[in-house]
Amino acid sequence: MSPDPRVTVIRQANAGQGAALNAGLRHVSEEFIAFLDADDEYLPDHLSAHLAFLDADPSVDLLWGGLEVVVSRPEDAFVPDMDQGSGFIHVSECVVMGTIFARRRVFETCRFVEDRHVWWIDYELVQAARKHFRVERFPHPTYRYYRNSGASLVDQAKRTWT
């Protein structure tokens, strides 16, 4: 039981990130959904800026982007380019899980890929959402993304990416 009545703890067998996120989404009742990875952080205006953007244009269903990247080495800021299928792209140009901010209705239609071998589930979700909803890139950095561990799934994939 959570000490804070606003927090619901959901326990399940480890089935990967996509399955865990989808399990959480089944319990959401609020209109807006945002994500925050444990090793990253929202800048002070992250949530209010996203809400203001969606309030100003109710036809937009999902926002992504708007991140400040923290790296130890310049090459850490580059990740595999999923759109091209080869090469690398600066992470600030990519879909990053923690920058996704969406209306609940998006997740009533779209879910995260539950294949543990797919490390780009955030990208896949946005691609799926584009088929049914209006998706926009958020223009201002309000999310601090730390890409300096060297041990992430993305870092592992970079070693074999062409």
For the largest sheet, list the strands in their spatial order: 1-7-3-8
- The domain tally reads 1
Q: According to CATH, what is the class?
A: Alpha Beta
* CATH architecture label name: Alpha-Beta Complex
Instruction: Average the pLDDT over all residues and give the rounded result.
Output: 89
Description:
There is one protein chain. The chain has helices at 17-25, 46-56, 104-109, 121-130, 153-158; strands at 32-34, 41-42, 62-64, 67-70, 78-80, 88-90, 101-103, 135-137, 143-146. It is an alpha/beta fold and 162 residues long. The chain has five helices and nine strands. It has a four-stranded mixed beta sheet with strand order 1-7-3-8, sandwiched between helices. A three-stranded mixed beta sheet has the order 2-9-4, with no helix packed on it. It has a single domain, classed as Alpha-Beta Complex (Spore Coat Polysaccharide Biosynthesis Protein SpsA, Chain A).
